[in-house]
Amino acid sequence: MSDQLTQRASWHGGDGLPDPLFQPEFYADVPIKRFFAWLVDAAAILLLTVLALPFTAFLGLLFFPLLWLGAGIGYRAAFIARNSATPGMRLLSIELRDGAGRRLDPGMAIAHTLLYSFFLATVVVQGVSVALMLSTPRRQGLHDLMLGTAMINRPAEP
Question: For this UniProt entry, which segments traverse the membrane (predicted)?
Fold first, then answer.
Protein backbone atom coordinates (compact mmCIF):
# COMPACT_ATOMS: atom_id res chain seq x y z
CA MET A 1 0.00 0.00 0.00
CA SER A 2 2.80 2.44 0.82
CA ASP A 3 4.28 1.80 -2.66
CA GLN A 4 0.99 2.98 -4.19
CA LEU A 5 1.04 6.11 -2.04
CA THR A 6 4.62 6.82 -3.06
CA GLN A 7 3.68 6.48 -6.73
CA ARG A 8 0.68 8.78 -6.27
CA ALA A 9 2.70 11.46 -4.53
CA SER A 10 5.79 11.28 -6.71
CA TRP A 11 4.54 12.21 -10.19
CA HIS A 12 5.48 15.74 -11.17
CA GLY A 13 6.30 15.17 -14.82
CA GLY A 14 9.62 14.04 -16.23
CA ASP A 15 9.34 10.60 -14.55
CA GLY A 16 7.29 9.01 -17.33
CA LEU A 17 3.57 9.23 -17.81
CA PRO A 18 1.39 8.73 -14.74
CA ASP A 19 0.31 5.13 -14.27
CA PRO A 20 -3.41 4.84 -15.07
CA LEU A 21 -3.79 2.00 -12.54
CA PHE A 22 -2.32 3.90 -9.59
CA GLN A 23 -3.08 7.46 -10.75
CA PRO A 24 -6.41 7.28 -12.61
CA GLU A 25 -7.20 10.91 -11.71
CA PHE A 26 -4.77 12.03 -14.43
CA TYR A 27 -6.94 10.35 -17.09
CA ALA A 28 -10.42 10.86 -15.59
CA ASP A 29 -12.85 12.46 -18.07
CA VAL A 30 -10.06 13.19 -20.57
CA PRO A 31 -12.01 12.04 -23.67
CA ILE A 32 -14.97 14.37 -22.98
CA LYS A 33 -12.62 17.21 -22.05
CA ARG A 34 -10.73 16.64 -25.32
CA PHE A 35 -14.00 16.92 -27.24
CA PHE A 36 -15.01 20.21 -25.61
CA ALA A 37 -11.48 21.58 -26.01
CA TRP A 38 -11.69 20.62 -29.69
CA LEU A 39 -14.95 22.59 -30.02
CA VAL A 40 -13.38 25.68 -28.41
CA ASP A 41 -10.30 25.44 -30.62
CA ALA A 42 -12.32 24.77 -33.79
CA ALA A 43 -14.35 27.93 -33.13
CA ALA A 44 -11.15 29.95 -32.53
CA ILE A 45 -9.56 28.59 -35.72
CA LEU A 46 -12.69 29.38 -37.72
CA LEU A 47 -12.66 32.94 -36.35
CA LEU A 48 -8.97 33.37 -37.23
CA THR A 49 -9.60 32.01 -40.72
CA VAL A 50 -12.52 34.39 -41.31
CA LEU A 51 -10.46 37.31 -39.98
CA ALA A 52 -7.67 36.39 -42.42
CA LEU A 53 -9.97 36.54 -45.46
CA PRO A 54 -9.68 40.32 -46.04
CA PHE A 55 -5.87 39.95 -46.05
CA THR A 56 -6.20 37.56 -49.00
CA ALA A 57 -8.38 40.08 -50.88
CA PHE A 58 -11.13 37.50 -50.27
CA LEU A 59 -9.40 35.10 -52.65
CA GLY A 60 -9.17 32.84 -49.60
CA LEU A 61 -12.82 31.99 -50.23
CA LEU A 62 -11.68 30.02 -53.28
CA PHE A 63 -9.51 27.77 -51.13
CA PHE A 64 -11.22 28.19 -47.76
CA PRO A 65 -10.72 24.58 -46.58
CA LEU A 66 -6.97 24.85 -47.21
CA LEU A 67 -6.84 28.22 -45.48
CA TRP A 68 -8.69 26.73 -42.49
CA LEU A 69 -6.35 23.72 -42.47
CA GLY A 70 -3.27 25.97 -42.52
CA ALA A 71 -4.65 28.18 -39.77
CA GLY A 72 -5.48 25.10 -37.69
CA ILE A 73 -2.04 23.58 -38.08
CA GLY A 74 -0.35 26.87 -37.20
CA TYR A 75 -2.65 27.50 -34.23
CA ARG A 76 -2.29 24.02 -32.75
CA ALA A 77 1.44 23.66 -33.35
CA ALA A 78 2.24 27.10 -31.93
CA PHE A 79 0.19 26.71 -28.77
CA ILE A 80 1.19 23.10 -28.12
CA ALA A 81 4.87 23.99 -28.63
CA ARG A 82 4.54 26.86 -26.17
CA ASN A 83 2.24 25.44 -23.46
CA SER A 84 1.77 21.77 -24.37
CA ALA A 85 -1.89 22.72 -24.71
CA THR A 86 -4.11 24.81 -26.95
CA PRO A 87 -6.34 27.48 -25.37
CA GLY A 88 -9.24 25.00 -25.46
CA MET A 89 -7.15 22.40 -23.65
CA ARG A 90 -6.04 24.95 -21.06
CA LEU A 91 -9.66 26.00 -20.51
CA LEU A 92 -10.55 22.36 -19.80
CA SER A 93 -7.41 21.81 -17.65
CA ILE A 94 -5.78 19.15 -19.83
CA GLU A 95 -2.39 19.07 -21.49
CA LEU A 96 -0.22 16.85 -23.66
CA ARG A 97 2.81 15.05 -22.27
CA ASP A 98 5.45 12.95 -23.99
CA GLY A 99 6.39 9.43 -22.94
CA ALA A 100 8.82 10.77 -20.35
CA GLY A 101 6.08 12.89 -18.77
CA ARG A 102 7.49 16.18 -20.10
CA ARG A 103 5.63 18.88 -21.96
CA LEU A 104 5.96 18.64 -25.73
CA ASP A 105 8.88 20.40 -27.40
CA PRO A 106 8.36 22.26 -30.70
CA GLY A 107 9.36 19.28 -32.87
CA MET A 108 7.00 16.92 -31.08
CA ALA A 109 4.25 19.57 -31.14
CA ILE A 110 4.55 19.84 -34.93
CA ALA A 111 4.61 16.04 -35.37
CA HIS A 112 1.55 15.67 -33.11
CA THR A 113 -0.32 18.42 -34.96
CA LEU A 114 0.46 17.01 -38.41
CA LEU A 115 -0.58 13.47 -37.48
CA TYR A 116 -3.72 14.78 -35.76
CA SER A 117 -4.61 16.86 -38.85
CA PHE A 118 -4.03 13.95 -41.22
CA PHE A 119 -6.13 11.57 -39.09
CA LEU A 120 -8.89 14.17 -38.72
CA ALA A 121 -9.16 14.34 -42.51
CA THR A 122 -9.37 10.54 -42.75
CA VAL A 123 -12.78 9.59 -41.37
CA VAL A 124 -12.12 5.88 -40.79
CA VAL A 125 -8.76 6.50 -39.10
CA GLN A 126 -10.31 9.27 -36.98
CA GLY A 127 -13.02 6.81 -35.91
CA VAL A 128 -10.35 4.33 -34.85
CA SER A 129 -8.55 7.10 -32.98
CA VAL A 130 -11.69 8.09 -31.07
CA ALA A 131 -12.39 4.43 -30.23
CA LEU A 132 -8.87 4.15 -28.83
CA MET A 133 -9.35 7.32 -26.74
CA LEU A 134 -12.41 5.72 -25.20
CA SER A 135 -10.84 2.31 -24.57
CA THR A 136 -7.12 2.59 -23.79
CA PRO A 137 -5.97 3.00 -20.18
CA ARG A 138 -4.24 6.33 -20.89
CA ARG A 139 -7.07 7.55 -23.17
CA GLN A 140 -4.66 7.86 -26.13
CA GLY A 141 -5.73 8.36 -29.72
CA LEU A 142 -3.91 6.68 -32.59
CA HIS A 143 -1.60 9.68 -33.07
CA ASP A 144 -0.80 9.64 -29.33
CA LEU A 145 0.04 5.94 -29.43
CA MET A 146 2.29 6.44 -32.46
CA LEU A 147 4.18 9.30 -30.80
CA GLY A 148 4.10 8.01 -27.21
CA THR A 149 2.16 11.05 -26.00
CA ALA A 150 -0.87 11.25 -23.74
CA MET A 151 -3.39 13.87 -22.76
CA ILE A 152 -3.67 14.20 -18.98
CA ASN A 153 -5.51 16.35 -16.51
CA ARG A 154 -3.17 19.19 -15.71
CA PRO A 155 -1.36 18.47 -12.44
CA ALA A 156 -1.36 21.04 -9.67
CA GLU A 157 1.81 23.11 -9.68
CA PRO A 158 4.08 22.23 -6.72
Answer: 35-68, 114-134
